[in-house]
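Figure 2 data, in text form.
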Amino acid sequence: MQKGPFFHQWFGRPGSLKRGRIIFIWAVFIPIIFLFLSIRVFPIFTNLSLSFTNAHLIRPVTKFIGVRNFFILFKDLQFIRAFRNSLEFMVIAVPGEILIGLIFALLLTRKVRGRNIRGEGLFQTLYFIPYILPMVPAIIIWRFFFSPGEFGLANYLLGLIGISRVAWMSNPRVLLLAIIGIHIWKNLGFFLIVFLVALKAVPRDLMDAARIDGASGWQTIIRIEIPMIKPTLLFGTVLATLIAWSAFTEVYTMSQGSDVSSGAEIQVLMLRMYQEVFTYSNTGKGSAISMVIFIMSVIFILIEFKIFKGKRI
C-alpha cells in the first residue's frame, strides 16, 4: 500500500529525523491531553449526569428524575439567597479588584517613568504578600481583627476616632461585606502585578508623542494606556469573575464561630453546594447547583467578552 503525502507530512519518511520528532511530540502531549480530559472535562459530564438523578451518598439506588432537581432549586429559599449573595459578592469584588489594582499599577508606573524607582520592588512585594498567604490562616487573622466587643482591633480603632462599635460577626450584611473586603485584599496583589507588567509594556514612544501633543496625564491614561492593555484587562476581569463567583474558603472560615455560624444568611453557591453534598448527602441536588455555577460562569464570561469587544449586548 502506497502512503500519501499526508502520512509523510505527519510521520515522516522511514528513518527520517522528522518521524522521531513527531513520535516524541505525541508521546509528550497524549498524557497531558488524557490528564486534561480526566481532570477537567470528564467531571463536567459526570456532574451533568448526576444533576438529572436523585443520587445520594448513602442511598445505593439512583433514579433518573429529569430536571426536577433544577425546579426544586429555584423554589428553595436558601438556594435563592445563596445565589443572590454570590451575585452581590461578584458585583462588588470584581470591580474592586480590577479598579484598585489598576489604580495602584498606574501609580507605580508613574513613579517608574518619573525615574523615581527606589522602593518600587518593596511596594510590589508588600502588595503581593497577601496573595501568597494561605487563605485559612489569613482568614483566622481577620477573624481576630473583626472580633466583637473590645477584643477586636477593628472596633478598637473605630473607638479611637469616636465611632460606635460595629457588629462585624453578628450582622449578616456587615459580615458579608467584610468577607468581600477580605477577598479583595487577598487577590489585589495578583491583579496589580499583572496590570503593572502590561503597563510597562506600553511603548514609550506613544507616551512621549502624546505629551508633546499636549495630552494631559488623564488623557494619556484613557486614550493610550487603557486601550493598549485591553486584553490584559479582559483577562483580569474574567479571572476575577471566576474567583469571586466560586468563592468558598473565606465565607466558610469566617462563618465558623460567629453568631451566623450556620452560614445560612451569608451562604454563597459553593457553600450551598458543599452543604447539600457533604452535610445532607444529596449528590443529585449538589450536582445541579454545580451546573448552575458552571452555566452562569460561562454566561458572565461571554458578557465580558462582548463588553470588551465594544459590542452591544
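Caption note: The chain has two domains: 5-50, 73-308.
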